[in-house]
Design the sequence.
């Protein structure tokens, strides 16, 4: 039933809708529709045009014009036959495909090897311009079709409920609806039990197996509850204040506290979800690596540091964009010892653009 709530528009449908609105010769429009069906999930057209023309009986002139129509569609870069063409289409759409940028695209191998001096000579620009051009390329989408290839949203049923206790603290309960159950058909077993000796033996073995499985599932449920309770106990500040107060916690620490093997903690937390006042979280979210504190103070969790970086960037004043170096310095002032590359890794992992991209975005908003 949930599948009928909202239909997901795939890449081919998205392209067909745009092509259908184009005013052009019928043969070219038909060719564009054919090409749209040949697009890979990442947005590239990897089938040779000659093969498509022969297979569908399309004239070369119509196919060439159809490709132009396809490559004019959203998202920019669609229908490219190489990375260079994909980036060029996006730059052309931004009116940024000047001779210097084209020379850079023609020599991407040199850029990948960091041959800045050679790029300066080929593009006719200085080192600062090369750096800015490379940053602009990194801001482009090398696989523009993937934004339409998202998996459908899955409804998550929490395995553990965490509620605030009346007298303070937190109560941890299992969601019994998600626990597997073993059912034995006693009537069928009794019927077979009255048969010959082989049937009685079979029923006895199956009853024993069912009892063993039921005990195993019960033991597993108790283990999940023990692990969840220990995690909640150690992360009480998270339930009170949110991600910024998440403490460093490893599966090994919980395993040692409960007298279990670390692999057991890994198994019982895999794919398990916890529901609390702040929403539903994967149980493994509450495990976080440790970030060393400056001056030997109490360590910070990686999740808390990521949340702090996100809030810093969200609070940026117009015209005062924070670079990764500046964020590193601000974190250091708060006692968080973290390298610049780690700041960049966390920022990129949260999908936050670089300071240069954010500055450009602010400038574009100022011009509106």
Sequence:
């Amino acid at each position: 039933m949930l599948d009928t709530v909202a239909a997901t528009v795939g890449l081919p449908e998205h392209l067909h809708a745009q092509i259908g609105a184009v005013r052009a010769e019928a043969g070219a429009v038909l060719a564009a529709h054919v090409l749209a069906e040949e697009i890979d999930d990442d947005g590239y057209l990897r089938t040779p045009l000659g093969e498509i023309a022969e297979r569908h009986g399309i004239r070369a002139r119509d196919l060439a014009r159809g490709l132009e129509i396809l490559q004019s569609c959203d998202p920019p870069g669609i229908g490219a036959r190489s990375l260079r063409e994909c980036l060029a289409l996006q730059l052309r759409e931004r009116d940024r495909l000047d001779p210097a940028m084209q020379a850079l695209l023609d020599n991407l191998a040199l850029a990948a090897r960091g041959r800045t001096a050679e790029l300066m000579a080929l593009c006719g620009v200085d080192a600062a311009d090369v750096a800015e051009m490379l940053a602009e390329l990194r801001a482009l989408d090398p696989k523009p079709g993937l934004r339409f290839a998202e998996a459908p949203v899955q409804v998550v049923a929490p395995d553990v409920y965490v509620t605030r206790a009346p007298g303070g603290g937190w109560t941890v309960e299992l969601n019994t609806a998600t626990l597997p159950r073993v059912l034995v058909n006693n009537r069928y077993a009794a019927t077979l039990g009255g048969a010959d000796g082989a049937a009685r033996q079979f029923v006895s073995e199956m009853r024993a197996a069912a009892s063993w499985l039921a005990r195993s599932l019960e033991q597993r449920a108790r283990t999940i509850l023990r692990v969840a309770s220990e995690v909640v106990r150690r992360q009480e500040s998270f339930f009170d204040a949110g991600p910024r107060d998440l403490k460093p916690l490893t599966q090994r620490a919980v395993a040692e506290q409960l007298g279990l093997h670390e692999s057991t903690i890994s198994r019982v937390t895999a794919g398990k979800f916890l529901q609390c006042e702040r929403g539903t979280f994967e149980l493994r979210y509450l495990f976080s690596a440790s970030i060393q504190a400056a001056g030997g103070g109490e360590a910070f969790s990686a999740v808390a540091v990521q949340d702090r970086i996100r809030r810093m960037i969200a609070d940026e004043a117009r015209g005062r964009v924070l670079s990764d170096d500046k964020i590193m310095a601000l974190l250091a002032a708060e006692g968080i010892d973290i390298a610049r590359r780690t700041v960049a890794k966390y920022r990129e992992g949260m999908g936050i653009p670089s300071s240069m991209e954010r500055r450009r975005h602010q400038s574009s908003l100022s011009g509106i």
